[in-house]
Design a protein that fits this description.
Low-confidence stretches: 5-11, 17-42
Strand content: 25-35%
CATH architecture: 3-Layer(bba) Sandwich
Order of helices and strands: EEEHEEHHEHEEEEEH
Helix content: 10-25%
Shape: elongated
Keywords: FAD, Flavoprotein, Oxidoreductase
Mean pLDDT: 76
CATH topology: FAD/NAD(P)-binding domain
Radius of gyration: 18 Å
Distance between the termini: 57 Å
GO molecular function: electron-transferring-flavoprotein dehydrogenase activity; flavin adenine dinucleotide binding
CATH superfamily: FAD/NAD(P)-binding domain
Organism: Musa balbisiana (Banana)
Strand order of the largest sheet: 1-2-11-3-4-7
Largest sheet: 6 strands, mixed
Region (Disordered): 15-39
Protein name: FAD/NAD(P)-binding domain-containing protein
């Protein structure tokens, strides 16, 4: 599609020439939101909508949150460190440190816990019916697994799997 720029790691950025609109309700960050308001009085902030809260999407959101109006759309309310998953099945404290809410690192942006079901030239439509406009769209969906939607349920899933397993240092 014209305007799309593929990047490494399967991330695609699409730009829209349409100005952004508040489109979603998000916490008051000391700015008016929408086109031209920007944070800190900067009238040049663009809305960047990132679909996917895995490694690529989360890292990008965290990296640009003070340089753009960032909206992260992810099916889950949390980020989990994938390489800690195996150890999390045998050590509960690891699970609690390896899984954290998107809002823990995205302090200057908006998190929408939903799936993106459609994309137009100017907006992303979520499963719960929200229309989120963008100046730049990043698709960073990676691969999918069957994971619980909320952090508490994911930690419970690890607890359930731990019962028959004993960490080596406790043997």
């Amino acid at each position: 599609m014209e305007g799309d720029r593929p990047l490494e790691c399967g991330v695609t950025i699409r730009s829209s020439s349409v100005s952004s609109d508040p489109g979603v309700s998000h916490r008051d960050l000391g700015h008016g939101g929408g086109s031209g308001s920007g944070r800190g009085g900067n009238a040049t902030w663009n809305r960047v909508v990132i679909v996917g809260g895995g490694i690529a999407g989360s890292l990008l959101a965290k990296s640009i949150q003070f340089h753009a109006d960032v909206v992260l759309i992810d099916q889950k309310e949390y980020f989990e460190i994938p390489w800690a998953t195996l150890r999390s099945t045998v050590e509960q404290p690891v699970a609690e440190k390896a899984i954290f809410s998107h809002t823990d690192y995205l302090v200057n942006g908006t998190v929408i816990t939903s799936s993106a079901v459609d994309v137009t030239e100017t907006e992303v439509i979520t499963a719960d019916g929200r229309h989120v406009t963008y100046d730049y769209l990043v698709i960073a969906t990676g691969h999918t697994t069957s994971s619980p939607r909320c952090k508490r349920d994911m930690i419970e899933k690890f607890k359930e799997g731990m019962s028959p397993i004993t960490p080596m240092h406790s043997a």
